[in-house]
Structure prediction request, 223 residues.
Amino acid sequence: MREQPHEQCACEPERKPEHQRQSGAVAVRRFEYRHVGVRRIVMDRNALSGRVARDNFLGIFRRTGADDPAPLFTDKDPVLNRNKQAAMHIVFDLLHYNHWDEAPKYLTERYIQHNPGFASGRQTVMDAFSKFAKATPVPASSKDYEPKIVAVLAQGDLVAVINRVERPDPRNPGKTYTTTHYDMWRFVDGKADEHWDEGAINAPPGAGKGPGPGGPGGGAPKQ
Prediction:
C-alpha cells in the first residue's frame, strides 16, 4: 500500500524563522499552537547563560535590565497603556527621583498599602518619603533612568514592575549584591489605588540582623 505524504498536524507548533533570533543572546523561540491560539516560549539550553533575547513578547531582558525602559511601559491596549504610563511615573518620578509633590497625579487619596513598613494613604507615603531624600532631576533621556527595569507585566487593572537592585551584603561588610525587587499596583481610573511589594519589617538597631528586603519603601517607619 502506498504511503500518503505526511501532513503536519494542526496541533504541531509553527516555528518562527531563525532570522528573528538574535545572535549572542539566549535563543527564545516562539511557538504558536494554532488549535488553541496560545503562544508559548521555549528557551534553549544556553538560557542558563542568563541572557535573554530582547525581542521576545514577554518583554524579558538581560539580567542587567533594559537599555531603555520606556518601551516596556507602553501597550497597544489603551487602558493598559494608561496604567503602565502611570506606573512608570511612580517608579521613576516618585520612588527614585523623589518628586513626591506630583504624587496626586498618580496615586489615589486612600492608596491602600500592603508593605508592612507603611500605613495606607497617599499623604502618609508622601510625608514619609519626603523626609528621606530631596527631589533630584529626572534625566532627559529614559535610557539614563534608574533603577534598571527587567520587566513590566500588565493584566486587567494590575501592573507589576520588576527591577534590578543593589543591597548591602550582610556576609561581607562594605560590599553589595545584586538581586531583584518588584512593585505591583492596582489601578483605578489611571491612578494607583493599591500597592504590593516584598517589603519587610527591619530588625531594631543593634539586634545583629541585616535589613529586610524592603526595596522602595521597605523598612520605612509605620505612621
About this structure: The chain has two domains: 1-58, 61-223. Residues 6-62, 209-223 have pLDDT under 50 and may be disordered. The domain at 61-223 is CATH 3.10.450.50 (Nuclear Transport Factor 2; Chain: A,). The helical segments are 78-96, 122-132.
